[in-house]
Task: inverse folding
């Protein structure tokens, strides 16, 4: 297979990897109420520019549409994704 030509070599981003548990700030359902908050998800795919995050619950776009495959895409430098924080048990 031929190499893909590019102007600049793509930078390797080691911040997220497929299978990582992360949190994303998105619209989702808690109880019977739709809220915007941090929701646990799993990195499903990492592209040079974007990260795909899959959730175990329904998530919604800002316009109100439910995402059928429960996958949202975020840019690598988004402030709306972060590594999952450890929960403190009492």
Result:
């Amino acid at each position: 297979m031929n190499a893909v030509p590019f102007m600049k070599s793509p930078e390797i981003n080691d911040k997220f990897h497929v299978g990582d548990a992360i949190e994303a700030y998105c619209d989702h359902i808690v109880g019977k109420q739709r809220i915007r908050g941090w929701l646990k998800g799993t990195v499903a795919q990492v592209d040079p520019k974007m990260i795909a995050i899959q959730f175990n619950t329904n998530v919604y776009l800002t316009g109100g549409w439910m995402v059928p495959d429960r996958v949202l895409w975020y840019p690598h430098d988004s402030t709306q994704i972060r590594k999952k924080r450890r929960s403190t048990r009492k």
User: Anything to note?
Assistant: The radius of gyration is 15 Å. Residues 21-83 form one domain. The mean pLDDT is 86.
